[in-house]
Amino acid sequence: MKNRDWLVTGNGQYQACKTARNWDLLRENYRVHRFLTELENLLMDAEDESKYLPDIRMLVRRLIINSYWVQSQYLEASSQTGTSVLVLYDELGFPFTVQTVTFAPGTKSNIHNHGTWGVIAILKGEEKNTFWKRESHPDSEDKIESTGELTLFPGDIISFTPDAIHCVEAVGNEPTVTFNVYGETDPTRRLEFDPVNHIARRF
Q1: Is residue 202 domain-resident?
Q2: Which one of 128, 158, 159, 162 has the fewest CB atoms closer than 10 angstroms to its CB?
Q3: pLDDT confidence of residue 39
Q4: Is 200 among the domain residues?
């Protein structure tokens, strides 16, 4: 089913969330600067920004519905890496990352968390998410195990708490394009995971 909202947490579980109706989000002249202002106002002085993920998902859905410009802003995937990133807004002191990401068909990311909250909307293509969790193990606190998979389609929005672990793969015959918003990353918590050697390193 398309146009669904999802939440993924550090225990590797994903759950469907209430999705705002598209017709309730229609606005005239709703542009990126309005989205950025509303996002900043929403999270100003928030101690736990993850609590606002439902509101952030709603803001992202409103932007995607009303802004053709955002949907058209992406790069072709690099022939060397299979991915490309286009930063849509970057200002010194602004605490969020706003970008579109393109994955060529068959391209797969490493296993990682984001060290902050994240909200990702699928604009084009299909993206398979595989979720992981840290496994309690006396020999290694960095041992992880897979907990499930979820394939996302255009109109789907997925959100992550800072400790959620996943990897993504572009499936299907066309590139996957996503609109991504992240909070301010704590570099000490931004990790990639090696499931074979049970190692986590800064990403």
Answers
A1: no
A2: 128
A3: 97
A4: no
Asked whether residue 119 is assigned to any structural domain, the reply reads: yes
pLDDT band per the 50, 70, 90 thresholds, residue 185: confident
**What pLDDT shows up at residue 202?**
86
Closest CA to 3 of 88, 64, 50: 64
Average pLDDT over residues 107-127: 97
pLDDT given at position 1: 54
- 129 class by beta-carbon count within 10 Å (0-12 exposed, 13-18 middle, 19+ buried): buried
Give the C-alpha separation, 57 to 65, whole Å.
12
d(CA 119, CA 35): 14
Question: What is the maximal distance between C-alpha atoms in the chain?
Answer: 57
Contact of 176 with 85, CB cutoff 8 Å: no
- What residue numbers bound the domain in which 169 lies? 5-194
- Single-letter residue type at 74: Y
Q: Which two tokens stand for residue 197?
A: 């050697």
